[in-house]
Amino acid sequence: MPPSSPRPSAVPADSRVVRFQRLRRLSQILDNAIGIPGTRIRFGLDPIIGLIPGGGDTVGMIFSSAIVLEAARMGASKTLLGQMAFNILLETVAGIVPVVGDIFDVTWKSNVRNIVLLEKYLEIERSTRPQNRWFAVLLLIGLFLVFAACLTISVLVLRWLLQMLGTIAQ
């Protein structure tokens, strides 16, 4: 039996590239999925979800946090994770303001910003960088606590407004 020549195998796709492409698709769905005809304005599901009173911004923050967590799994630095968390934090805090927060969400696009940051990082990344999963988890917990505070303030303001309307109607 003659020795068989080695078969060329398909080069396995770099898992980081595949994961990054998945994150990029998620950010596009969240921030740029829908275009307004005749304009260059695009928005995604994140601002639409944010319109749901009380829980919409929470859901948007969870989706956005998934990008940060995956970036940590890919070995992103603490500095980068902090920048990404700041983008989400700014969008979440602004989101508690009715109408203005939704407009800010359409223009700020924290998920797209975070993907650009991650892409730049991956281009210069050294393989010796430590993974910062726990740092990312702590950042996400911090984001959640800030969001909980913002939600509490929103509920209190809404309750106060309803009481004022009730007083005026009487």
From TrEMBL:
Which sequence ranges are marked TM in the entry? 134-162
Source organism, top-level taxon: Bacteria
Entry keywords, A to Z: Membrane, Transmembrane, Transmembrane helix
Question: What name does the UniProt record give this protein?
Answer: DUF4112 domain-containing protein
The organism of origin for this protein: Thermocoleostomius sinensis A174
